[in-house]
Amino acid sequence: MTGYLDYTDVRNPVWADAGHSSIACEVKFDLFADYVPFIAMLSDPHPHGAEIFSACASGQYGELGDYVPPPLPSNAVTL
Known about the structure:
With 79 residues, the chain is of the alpha+beta class. The chain has one helix and three strands.
């Protein structure tokens, strides 16, 4: 759990996109008092991002939730 930013825990990992190239989660970085929202990607240029992605994808921080597309705004026009 070392890298660009040190962290102690990750919670609530879910796929952040349909292509499964990013994971949304909450990370407890040493620098902050509480968990912060974080998007982890294997292609992240910072070591902690790829490390968190790999750990979440392997199930280290619990079951990885499915991607859920955001709802369309009520005034959205569909073609």
